[in-house]
Amino acid sequence: MRSLLTKGWVLFMLVVMGLGLAGVGYALWSQQLQLEGVVVTDSMEMDYDKQCTDDNGVVDCQWVDSTADPSDDGNDPSGPGPVPPRIDKDIGECYCSIDQVATNNKIQIHMTKTYPSYWCTTWFTVRNNGTIPVKLDKAILNGTPIDIGPLSQLDADQDGDDDMEVAVSDLVQCEQQDPEGWCGTSGCYDEVGNVEVHILNGADEAETISFELELIYVNWNEDTANCPVP
């Protein structure tokens, strides 16, 4: 019996030593592999490229359409473009320019000597100068989202009476707009849009009123309430 116990003990110790040696062998031959990644994202950059109005006394909107703004002789528009009806008086003026300080992403519209029923239409091109496709998600007028197309009333001076109505049109909401340098089946990198401004009876005399219109673009594959991804 004692001999069996001794042999068993020896066998147990040999097993323990073998396992220890196996562990040492594993530690001696271990190797760690690593992976490191660097991610460079693309960029979104939407800029205004061209602009013109239908009441600056110059026929300068032919790049929009060959028939656009053919009679901008200074007489005031009494309706929206591109070929607006005009009254026989030259009172109001409407000019626009691309704000270079704002890196081409702001258009300033200046309307002077206006009056109720005066109209001004501003045309512009929006260019995708980034590296990814985008889409127009929404328009915001003085902090309030508005629909693309119809006129939206605005009480700019907050006196309880609407001073003007503003519309953004021609731009297609949710449509993919490709970057400059490549064009997909959905179109090229320039999109033509316009802003129509109509002065209403709520505008007071000798008053300076202003509005801010924002066009919000997002990645073409971003899922939004206005432009859900199929």
Note down, in words, how this protein is organized:
This protein is mainly beta. Helices cover 12% and strands 30% of the residues. It has one helix spanning 2-28, and strands at residues 46-53, 93-98, 107-112, 119-128, 134-141, 144-146, 152-154, 164-169, 176-177, 190-199, 213-219. The chain has a five-stranded antiparallel beta sheet, with no helix packed on it. Strands 5, 6, 9 and 11 form a four-stranded antiparallel beta sheet that branches. A hairpin with a 2-residue loop joins strand 5 and strand 6. It is elongated and about 95 Å long.
Instruction: Specify Rg, calculated over alpha carbons.
Output: 34 Å
Structural class category: mainly beta
Order of helices and strands: HEEEEEEEEEEE
What is the molecular shape? elongated
Contiguous runs where pLDDT drops below 50 for at least 5 residues: none
Largest sheet: 5 strands, antiparallel
Number of helices: 1
Quaternary structure state of the chains depicted:
single chain
Number of domains: 1
β-strand percent reads: 25-35%
Query: Strands of the largest sheet, in order across it?
Result: 1-4-10-8-7
> Could you give the distance between the termini?
81 Å
The tally of beta strands, per DSSP, is 11
> What percentage of residues falls in helices of 4 or more residues?
10-25%
Report the mean per-residue pLDDT as an integer.
Answer: 83
Quick recap:
This protein has one helix at 2-28; strands at 46-53, 93-98, 107-112, 119-128, 134-141, 144-146, 152-154, 164-169, 176-177, 190-199, 213-219.
